[in-house]
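Ticket #370: bound-state structure for zinc ion.
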Amino acid sequence: MERLLVKENPLLLPLNKEKTVYDGFITVQERDFRVRILLPPDHQIKLAKLHCCWQLKQLLRGYGHILKQRLHHSADLVGFVLEMKTVLEVALKSKPEYRSIPPPKYYSQLITEMEHLGWDKLVFIDTEFRTLSLKAEDSTGRQHVVTVKLKPKHPTEAPECSADLPVPMAITWTSKSTLNHIHTQFLLLLESLADFWKVLDEIDEKTWVLEPEKPSRADTMRRIAIGNNVSIKVEVDSRHPKMLPECCLLGADHVVTPLRNKLNANMHLWNPDCSVLQNLRDVLEIEFPSPATHEKSSFSTECGICYSYRLNSDIPDQVCNDSRCGQPFHQACLYEWLRGLPSTRQSFNIVFGECPYCSKPITVKMSTKP
Ligand SMILES: [Zn+2]
Ligand SMILES: [Zn+2]
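RESOLUTION: The complex was predicted; output attached.
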């Protein structure tokens, strides 16, 4: 029986030679509960006394009579501990809030760590003191926030960190690490991304960005207006922000084709010492319309079918290729429109029909979204 008890509960051990006092922890659902079991000299389990830690007492409130009953029916200590674990599991299920209550030393540890880091860095903490947000300023004065979810076994277990970044927030953590370590590593990560944000800030400031509507610090893509219904989508590499980004020109063929030819012909002129915006100007040989020169309304032309700009998250990126028309449509709107006309033909996933505005031929891919 002794061996079985140790095997099932390696943290619960006898304190004396007579093996009448057991002390330690029992583990239920990955949580350790401190217990002490006192047995009479004849080891009769019926007369055993159980001492629980305050958490366990709270948790077992309302289960006392069940536990007593189980004690009387248990054959030996192994049986009783097993019964107790079953009761605990039921209790944990009915009181989910107890499942992850950290021990008291968690809170004192948290306060010590915050005092060390500085309370002025704390921008948010939840009522359970488990999730906190810390602010950080990079060397150019940009404000950032890192959100830290602490584990009940903090600092033994690494916390989960997240932030508005284009790269995963990887934190090196040991059981001696503190919030200060997270903050320091976050600052280093911010510095490594300074060039990336500089490139994007210039684009956001000096051009009309059509997408994303409100770029976050994590967004690597910008769709920049070039002219009416013409735009370029650039995907900036956060690790190599000044290299030639992935570019995609969007708009009617007669406008986009010459630009695409310029891009291909001048690609070798890309200078990694200059900003992405400057390079795009040089390679495409254009000036981008900017908030200083144009109104945004000249670019965000709405769909010719539903008269809105956003449809779910889509923007009208299907454009009539006729140079006098150039009307944009949402893919889903155009597909639905064409499908309803008898003159429309379909080949594989391409639908051929007429532009609802100028009646010139127009094609659209079958909508893949539901
Ligand atoms: Zn539409
Ligand atoms: Zn048209």
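RESOLUTION NOTES: Residues 26 and 33 are 5 Å apart (CA to CA).
TICKET STATUS: resolved
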